[in-house]
């Protein structure tokens, strides 16, 4: 309850921040984009989104927080594109946001308001959220895709998606859950299976949670497209991320 009232005040005061974790092309090391991650400092302490996002979901505050995240990410992507060059930014979308009937319209309005090219926005949705109600989410995903936004399935491999099921989904990217990246190189079965599935469906692949040079090497050899994790970089404040964008152009 204290967390809930703190969160309400934070929403009103907009006292959140986004940090940006770089993603690189596995083959070349070239910067390919960022994942935006929300941060909240409350009464002097950093509260993890793993703790407050569930509360925001339960209370419905996620709708307003999610809108702020989208706005901030699009504002940043547009500024970087104008000042340096086009770099995609990925944003996490929670269950309740995706289920909101106004979600695709919101995304369209935010892109327009900030003059953001749709291809610079990627939406990350977890496999379990999509799977829980595919029929319900499919029209929304199709509308988002029609805007030109890219869709990534986050934490992939933790659910039970089949080839048949994935084929009908309008998605562009599979993000291999970091638990399976963590198993590399000694237990590569799941990572191998996900990469084979993605290649079969012409989907791009991102490995998240890459922490060691051995993992990076295995993934590059196995044909994973993009790498993300502490080995490459921790999530960065906007200014530090911008410095990376600058050197990439
Ligand atoms: O950044 P960190 O690893 O602490 O994130 C913990 C969890 O919170 C992850 O599951 C991540 O996807 C989620 N998360 C981070 N930022 C956002 C956000 O802006 N919106 C939503 N819905 N989830 C987020
Ligand atoms: O669920 P999602 O994939 O959105 O979670 C992103 C979270 O993973 C962020 O909180 C981020 O801080 C965290 N993260 C990013 N890279 C690494 C990593 O290499 N190792 C670990 N343990 N966590 C990471
Ligand atoms: Mn994510
Ligand atoms: Na993930």
From TrEMBL:
<feature type="domain" description="EAL">
    <location>
        <begin position="1"/>
        <end position="249"/>
    </location>
</feature>
<protein>
    <submittedName>
        <fullName>EAL domain-containing protein</fullName>
    </submittedName>
</protein>
